[in-house]
Design a protein that fits this description.
14 helices; RNase_Y/CdgJ; Hypothetical protein af1432; HDOD domain-containing protein; globular; HDOD; 285 residues; 61% helix
Length: 285
């Protein structure tokens, strides 16, 4: 049943309990860990990787879609999993494996929870796709690295739903967003530390959404993530809370022609390439 505004304290209590008990949070699947360990080996064989990835047909399909996506623009479309691994390379495969794992980790207890999750996932994959697109065009950062950083930057928003074990307690979209704003970053840090991912991703979680954050003079990974987050939010209910794009520290680091603004006060680079961005998002879902 849908709860009311008066039940917000119950939500807060459940999420606070989740944060105090790390065991309630999902662990990376064993297969993901095996694939990542194999990828980290100095001389892993192609047949070994193919055999491992072949245990998860959905992962193989995602890798194929990603290798054929507008993001890579390969001259020859890969036909087999071996082709995909050669096109992507081991680092990209590792990052796509992580992206795939994130979506499959969270148990959903009702249709209401699933609707909240899928809406959040659509936004996060759009944000990751914008980030990857910007990385390819304005940064010196691999696009898949940017996409994963963007996705992991808000993994805490997905983790919030882990607090609701019963199917009868479903927050409204507005309440869910309030919980994400209050607890998402803290949950994200706890979760990424549990997964033992690179510290760089943990620091991204801490800094995402800080529009005035200072740092190096050139574009950094966090700048791409913040620009992507801004554009992903700009068409939603949180648009009214956003500052003008030109006030963002990340925007100030852009140079012509990438700093040009479109009619909506957003980057022309993004507005002119929505089809490409949505095609990348489709490859991540």
């Amino acid at each position: 049943m849908q709860t009311t505004a008066s039940d917000y304290s119950i939500y807060r209590q459940l999420v606070a309990q989740l944060m105090s008990d790390e065991e309630q949070l999902p662990s990376l699947p064993m297969l993901t860990l095996e694939i990542r360990r194999a990828l980290a080996m100095p001389e892993v064989s192609m047949s070994r990787l193919v055999a491992l990835i072949g245990q998860d047909p959905a992962l193989g399909a995602l890798l194929m879609k990603y290798a054929c996506s507008a993001l890579l623009r390969s001259r020859v479309s890969p036909r087999t999993l071996q082709d995909v691994l050669r096109v992507l390379g081991l680092q990209q495969v590792d990052r796509v494996v992580m992206m795939h794992s994130v979506k499959s980790l969270f148990a959903l207890h009702s249709a209401g929870h699933k609707r909240l999750f899928m809406a959040a996932w659509r936004r996060l994959t759009l944000q990751g796709s914008i980030c990857a697109f910007l990385a390819r065009n304005v940064g010196h950062i691999p696009a898949d690295h940017a996409a994963l950083a963007s996705l992991l930057s808000e993994v805490g928003a997905l983790a919030v739903l882990s607090a609701f074990k019963g199917g009868d307690l479903v927050p409204s979209p507005v309440r869910y967003q309030e919980l994400c704003r209050a607890y998402g970053a803290s949950l994200g840090v706890i979760l990424l530390k549990k997964w033992a991912v690179d510290e760089e991703y943990v620091q991204i979680v801490r800094a995402v959404g800080d529009w005035s954050r200072t740092g190096a003079r050139q574009i950094e990974l966090i700048d791409l993530v913040n620009l992507a987050r801004y554009h992903a939010l700009a068409d939603g209910e949180e648009a009214a809370e956003l500052p003008p794009l030109v006030r963002l520290t990340a925007y100030a680091k852009l140079v012509a022609p990438h700093d040009a603004l479109g009619g909506g006060g957003r980057l022309s680079l993004v507005e002119a390439h929505w089809d490409d961005i949505h095609a990348i998002a489709a490859a991540l879902r």
